[in-house]
Amino acid sequence: MIVDLLRLLDIPPDLPAAEKAAAVVRCCALRREATAPSRDVASVVESRWFSGTAECARFLGELFRGSMGRGAAFGGPWPFLQAGGRVVAPALPVVASATEAAGPDGSYRFADGAVRREAVGEERPFLSTGRTAVADGVGFDLMWFGAGERYLVRDGILEIEDLFSALRLPATAPVVRGVLAKTLRVDAEVLSDLPFAPRDGAGAEVEVRRPLELVGNERWREPAEVLSARPGIRKVTQQADRLVAETEGGTELVFVASEEPAGWQLFSWEGDHPLRTLAMRSDGDVLCFRGILRPGLDPLTPGLRQRLAFDLRSDLVALG
């Protein structure tokens, strides 16, 4: 029976057991809290979503005969299965081991009792196989994977992460339904009682991160230095609390500079620059660079997220 069900998920039945389990995680959505009565395996496959981590772990246990453990992830207890130095678990899209494995949203490796995830330009603990708290201490409502990214809905925000960047935008009902329909063939019931954002609200933002040691200097503390390095900017001059950037096209962009905890922010209220706000801050030993899109610019336009992320990441590299 399980072989036939895997075919319904387009998973080759001859894959190793652990790989089958990871493939199931990639092709089924996960609700953090149970929103439906306990279901059998066939019902889960038909709907392509799990009603909680316990349901997902039971399904994975049917495929991968590892020992079941209770660890920690996303700010709370988290089930996992482990055998022969390999780990499979809900929300883990690969088989984690000592050898780094590339997933759709980043890279994973298992070492010293923790699965670590490299994404958005930084490696952080993802899942602890003990009960020690891990870095990602914030929960979520819904998670699923696309061909090259992870989608996560929490606190009314839709986060789209890959190896290089994160895009965050209001998780309104039309947006979440539209993205889910394009990326995963899942029963619409998965969205039942999901706390959507009531309206568009704040602008979408793109963030990239880079270890401070790779930057190697303090140039990031000067907004003018960073702005001067941006693509299409020819010259930057300081006028009181404002920075005036002359573009290669001969136009001017005016930014108001302000200090923020551990960093700064630049805001522009006019012009055709795709980012209305640029913000830089240090987060421990990592530098975070964030851009907020101008109103009217659709953050889900094909290729836009990747282009903006490439520019922001190039800025950080140029600073070094």
Overall number of domains: 2
Largest sheet: 13 strands, mixed
The number of helices is 8
Strand content: 35-45%
Q: Whole-number radius of gyration?
A: 22 Å
Strand order of the largest sheet: 2-1-10-11-12-13-14-20-19-18-17-16-15
Shape: elongated
Tell me, rounded to a whole number, the average pLDDT: 90
Q: What class, by secondary structure content?
A: alpha+beta
What is the helix fraction of residues, given as a range? 10-25%
Kindly, what is the distance between the CA atoms of the first and last residues, rounded to a whole number of angstroms? 56 Å
Name the poorly predicted regions: none
Query: Order of SSEs, N→C?
Result: HHEHEHEEEEEEEEEEEHEHHEEEEEEH
Any chance you could write out the topology, listing elements then pairs?
Elements: H1 2-8, H2 17-27, E1 29-31, H3 41-47, E2 49-50, H4 53-63, E3 67-73, E4 76-83, E5 86-88, E6 101-102, E7 107-111, E8 114-119, E9 122-128, E10 142-145, E11 150-154, E12 157-161, E13 166-170, H5 173-183, E14 205-211, H6 212-215, H7 223-228, E15 233-239, E16 242-247, E17 252-260, E18 263-267, E19 275-283, E20 286-293, H8 304-319
Parallel strand pairs: 1-2
Antiparallel strand pairs: 1-10, 3-4, 4-5, 6-7, 7-8, 8-9, 10-11, 11-12, 12-13, 13-14, 14-20, 15-16, 16-17, 17-18, 18-19, 19-20
Helix pairs in contact: 1-3, 2-4
